[in-house]
Write a structure and sequence with these properties.
The complex is a heterodimer of chains A (about 120) and B (about 110). By secondary structure, chain A is an all-beta fold. Chain A has no helices and twelve strands. The radius of gyration of chain A is 14 Å and the shape is globular. Chain A starts with a strand and ends with a strand. The relative contact order of chain A is 0.34. In chain B, strands 2, 4, 5, 6, 9, 10 and 11 form a seven-stranded mixed β-sheet that branches. The chains are: A mainly beta (about 120), B mainly beta (about 110). The interface between A and B is medium-sized, with 26 and 29 residues.
């Protein structure tokens, strides 16, 4: 079974600063996806960034980038030039990449509550 | 709005009552998932449909829980004889058959069992 661990329950930074959220995972699979999802207060979960395990290049999406260390099973999220709207719970998630009827469920970490202060 | 919708958004019930939640996925999405999220925790997988077929169920899904997706479109999640431990946010997500893994989440149904 896969597990995902986020060791930082809460983080707080000033607006415009850079912040890094940590995530480690445990799996024996070789073919999988990793995700960071954002859940703003009282709003639905949305995808921030996705990484395919077979790709060595770290994914980037505007101000969001990841540091994917496959051997270490580490997948951190860096938010540059943080904005007030980045305040949210952030969840790291793992998905085994299966066939048509393969397991497609997301396995989530416990989350990190990120607060961006003005 | 063409996103995932869930109804009701909030449900308060007394212990022992039955409740049913509905999820309408994005129309062209074949896959539909149910998750449960308790306060301060990450979502936990409950079950997964591909079209009308229920392909996987978590051990979290006790005999009191049943999910259906009769025509491969909307889905319902029923909890019978609710217990206080069932209080949680129930999230629905959908994804296309051929995609890069992203699941699109609905706003959730918050269940409170008194």
């Amino acid at each position: 079974a896969q597990t995902v661990t986020q060791s930082q329950p809460e983080m707080s930074v000033q607006e415009a600063e850079t912040v890094t959220l940590s995530c480690t995972y445990d799996t024996s699979e070789n073919n999988y996806y990793l995700f960071w999802y954002k859940q703003p207060p009282s709003r639905q979960m949305i995808l921030v960034i996705r990484q395919e395990a077979y790709k060595q290049q770290n994914a980037t999406e505007n101000r969001f980038s990841v540091n994917f260390q496959k051997a270490a099973k580490s997948f951190s999220l860096k938010i540059s030039d943080s904005q007030l709207g980045d305040t949210a719970m952030y969840f790291c998630a793992f998905m085994k990449r299966g066939g048509i009827q393969g397991a497609q469920k997301l396995v989530f970490g416990q989350g990190t509550r990120l607060t961006i202060n003005p | 709005d063409t996103g995932v919708s869930q109804n009701p958004r909030h449900k308060i019930t007394k212990r022992g009552q039955n409740v049913t939640f509905r999820c309408d996925p994005i129309s062209e999405h074949n896959r539909l998932y149910w998750y449960r999220q308790t306060l301060g925790q990450g979502p936990e997988f409950l079950t997964y449909f591909q079209n009308e077929a229920q392909l996987e169920k978590s051990r979290l899904l006790s005999d009191r829980f049943s999910a259906e997706r009769p025509k491969g479109s909307f889905s319902t999640l029923e909890i019978q004889r609710t217990e206080q431990g069932d209080s949680a946010m129930y999230l629905c997500a959908s994804s296309p058959l051929a995609g890069a893994g992203e699941q699109f989440f609905g706003p959730g149904t918050r269940l409170t069992v008194l």
